[in-house]
Amino acid sequence: MKCLRLQLLLPDYLPAYDENMLVNNQLIDAPSISVIIPVRDEAGAIANLLQEVLDKVGAIYRVQVIVVDDGSCDGTDKIVKQLAANDSRIILVRHAKRSNKSAALRTGAMIANSLWMATIDGDGENDPTDVLAMVAQIDATKVGKVGLVAGVRRHRTAGLGRLIASRIGNFVRQILLRDDCPDAACGLKVVLRPLFLAFPYFDSLHRYMPALTKCYGYETLHVLVDDRPRRVGRSKYNNSKRALVGIIDLLGVFWLLRRTTVRYYSSSKPTEYIKS
Would you say the pTM of this structure is higher than 0.85? Predict the structure, then answer.
């Protein structure tokens, strides 16, 4: 299937920023976006990432940034708590015990107050600028045919082993689920919050959002995003762990999709890759 590639430039759709538009750190009459950031032991990266999100996304949208600390032991929560004390747009939630990424995203979604929410990893590898290009693909004030805007990482900075494992996983997932998503593990996503909360919850849900979105009858758009090298900390997963858990989850989702009959929208459009 041939993919349509579109070039979108930021100045074409971003309004000029004016300090007079701000009241209590919030933009007047701008759409609201909730940004969910799951973190675990990211003390070296979280402060810079939060500042980036507030400076970039917060300059265009009324933003609510929900940091869900999933059992950090390095003081990540203390850093976020201090930043939240000085900026009401930041909300800190801490799990009593480690529950993994999908649980953190669901916790953030239940607290969020926006119709649309963006998810971004807390390690700094995702660029918050890409969130702007992704949100620009939908009307953040209403529900339409698109339920998910998914990031597709270009110029991957991960090691060769992780890259090969990722491609094998994507290939197998496509055969079974046919979700038309080349990079389901990318942490950058913009999703309709009520749709996300309608998904059946299970561990690793975040990897199957494109498949579930399609199953529920909504369209997914794909936006090419940057993958920045990790500056501090280390990955929480290894290839063997990903593979073992992934096989079990894949079979479970394969069964689940065939037992789900909810249909809201349908479309025969080809997958679109939008270059940010």
Answer: no
The answer to whether the CB of 32 falls within 8 A of the CB of 62 is yes
- SS3 call for 205: helix
Instruction: List beta partners, residue 66.
Output: 36, 91
- Three-state DSSP class for residue 149: strand
Nearest to 146 by CA among 201, 210, 198: 210
Angular region, 169: left φ>0, alpha ψ -120 to 50, beta rest: alpha
Per-residue pLDDT of the chain in tens (276 residues, 90 and over written 9) = 333 332 222 223 333 334 444 455 556 678 999 999 999 999 999 999 999 999 999 999 999 999 999 999 999 999 999 999 999 999 999 998 899 999 999 999 999 999 999 999 999 999 999 999 999 999 999 999 999 999 999 877 655 656 666 666 666 667 777 788 788 889 999 999 999 999 999 888 998 999 999 989 899 999 999 989 877 766 655 555 555 556 778 777 778 887 776 654 444 444 454 555
Count how many residues are written for the chain. 276
Q: What type of residue is 23?
A: V
